[in-house]
Write a structure and sequence with these properties.
The protein is an all-alpha fold. Helix content is 75%, strand content 3%. The protein has helices spanning 5-33, 40-50, 54-57, 59-71, 73-82, 84-103, 111-137, 157-181, 184-211, 217-224, 228-232, 234-251, 257-277, 288-291, 295-322, and strands at 142-143, 146-147, 280-282, 286-287. The radius of gyration is 20 Å and the shape is globular.
Length: 334
């Protein structure tokens, strides 16, 4: 039996992107919430909750982007040409955020500058990711295997909506992460942030979901025409179930439940995107098989991925296990 290498690689890259979103999402969410918490001790506690894992979480971004370049070079060239501005903005914002992690502890006089670099970098990176996602969902014009649009095509009301939606969603992830990992004043503030960001996130999920089918007739067919509707209907039902669990977790002051319910919302939204996109990798212009490199290259790279991906999963799981428990302002865990 011949392996469908493009399909396998599409699944691997989709998994890497999802892993990045749900893992680095709460890191960015902590940064988004950072300006709304006063007190040096409380801010130290917030940063310490993600300090041991944030750089490992970004491994998945490298794997997803590098895999796209190596395996689907045509899609990479089209997407980068179309989304150059928001992607470069995201990367620069991530640089500022990463530097802030290191430099904030080195100065007292200039600490407020690195606080703003951490918060601003996190917020801008999240917004740029959302804008890039919205621009991808609305479709990228392609002619003669190259991007055929203009410089500002990525900037539309829909992409701005998805940008704000992702900032709000990451804020929810950050709040529920802090509920799980902190105590005292920071945890109480995090419950408050979650009560605000949770309903806003659900409103944005609903708004984006209702708008998306009208962007392209293909999406409308995938979601509302028989028999495709049988595959699509469970997604909104499961979103409502996750929302109910999230609401109960927040109102009943549970600690781990809100975080995992929030992750479920992101995972279900990602599956919904997959239903809309498949089998296209550049909606709705280039399919997975059209964009893939030669099978020999894909097979060679797959050997490395079979070794690398389990290793990344192993050290990611190990790091979260080592730094389990509650965190304090001094960076200790208990």
């Amino acid at each position: 039996m011949t392996l469908d290498l493009p399909l396998i690689w599409a699944a691997l890259i989709a998994f890497a992107v999802l892993a990045y979103v749900i893992l680095d999402g709460f890191d960015l969410g902590v940064g988004i919430l950072f300006p709304f918490v006063e007190g040096e001790t409380e801010r130290d506690e917030m940063m310490n909750s993600v300090a041991p894992v944030w750089d490992g979480n970004e491994t998945w971004l490298v794997l997803g982007g590098g895999g796209l370049l190596a395996v689907f070079p045509l899609a990479y060239s089209i997407i980068m040409s179309a989304l150059y501005a928001p992607i470069i903005t995201m990367l620069l914002a991530l640089v500022f955020r990463g530097v802030a992690f290191e430099f904030r502890w080195k100065t007292r006089r200039g600490q407020f500058l690195w606080d703003w670099a951490f918060a601003g970098g996190s917020t801008l990176a999240a917004f740029a990711q959302g804008v890039a996602l919205g621009a991808l969902v609305q479709g990228i014009p392609v002619a003669n295997r190259a991007y055929a649009g203009g410089w500002w095509d990525w900037l539309t009301p829909f992409s701005l909506l998805t940008g704000v939606a992702l900032v709000t969603g990451y804020a929810l992830l950050g709040a529920t992460w802090l509920i799980w990992k902190t105590e005292g004043h920071v945890q109480r503030m995090s419950y408050y942030f979650a009560k605000i960001s949770a309903p806003l996130t659900l409103v944005f999920i609903g708004g984006v979901s209702l708008w998306t089918p009208f962007l392209n007739p293909v999406y409308m067919t995938r979601w509302f025409h028989w028999p495709n509707v049988l595959l699509a209907v469970p997604i909104p039902i499961l979103v409502l179930c996750a929302a109910y669990v999230l609401y109960n977790g927040i109102t009943q002051k549970r600690e781990a439940t809100p975080f995992f319910a929030s992750l479920s919302l992101f995972i279900l939204s990602f599956i919904g995107l997959g239903i809309s996109f498949f089998p296209h990798i550049v909606p709705n212009s280039v399919t997975i098989w059209d964009a893939a490199g030669p099978d020999n290259s894909l097979g060679f790279l797959l050997v490395g991925a079979v070794v690398l991906v389990p290793l990344i999963l192993a050290y990611t799981a190990y790091s979260y296990w080592v730094f389990r428990g509650k965190v304090n302002a001094q960076g200790g865990y208990h």
